[in-house]
Amino acid sequence: MKVIAHRGYSSQAPENTMAAFGKALDVGNTHWELDVQMTKDGEVVVIHDETVDRTSDGEGLVKDLTLDQLRQLDFGSWFDEAFTAERIPLLSDVLQTASEHDVWLNIELKTGIVQYPEIEQRVIDLIHQYDMGQQVAISSFNHYSLKKVKEICPAMPIGLLYMAGLYEPWHYAARLGAEALHPLYRSIVPEIVAGAKAAGIALRPFTVDEPALIQRMIAAGVDGIITNYPERAAGLLAAKP
């Protein structure tokens, strides 16, 4: 079972920063989830929100700011003063580090609110530039975006993010050519697990943090969990009889 660090080790460092990914490496975690948006000048950056307001000392939409403007902002002190002056990473920064440490990445396209022109192509190009095609999955709540990924690169693995109670979602996944389902953890019930396994579709629920919930996902036999506490999850997985 993959233990996937949600936005890096985001309970120990500011989310979606190189500090958070470094903290994951420090505890031996080599499976990371991250979010990407696109700047005014077409750079793919790692940030969850469409605005910088929550996770920096600035304001405004990512799409309205250039990379230079974003790089002037502090993306760490909101979390803790120890991370003051932490900068927003480019996707290429994370891919470089991942390629050097044999890390598997789940790259989430944040295209549900802002429609970034050609972000799918740009992300795929970057993945290939760093020779990471065998070590990634691209996910999104915007399944039209994931369909575009498959049209551009049929071999690129995709994971369908969703929060609804989909009926027999493995059939839907197969229709889109998806290799994985990434549901909210509440969707993990025996019939979903059995159906997905029979269809060869991986199940990687989010966001699984509490010890009892982690243990329930382990017992259910999911293929991975996305968690803010990767060290906790790894310990519980290792302790499984």
What does this structure look like?
With 241 residues, the chain is of the alpha/beta class. The chain has one domain: TIM Barrel, CATH 3.20.20. Helix content is 34%, strand content 17%. It is built from 9 helices and 9 strands. Strands 1, 2, 3, 4, 5, 6, 7, 8 and 9 form a 9-stranded mixed beta sheet that branches. Strand 2 (31-38) and strand 3 form a beta hairpin. Helix 6 packs parallel to helix 7 (190-199) and helix 8 (211-220) packs across helix 9 (230-238). The longest helix has 11 residues, at 91-101. The relative contact order is 0.14. The model has no long low-confidence stretch (mean pLDDT 98).
Topology:
Blueprint: E1 2-6, H1 18-26, E2 31-38, E3 44-46, H2 67-71, H3 91-101, E4 104-109, H4 119-129, E5 136-140, H5 143-152, E6 158-162, H6 169-176, E7 180-183, H7 190-199, E8 202-203, H8 211-220, E9 224-227, H9 230-238
Parallel strand pairs: 1-2, 1-9, 2-4, 4-5, 5-6, 6-7, 7-8
Antiparallel strand pairs: 2-3
Helix pairs in contact: 6-7, 8-9
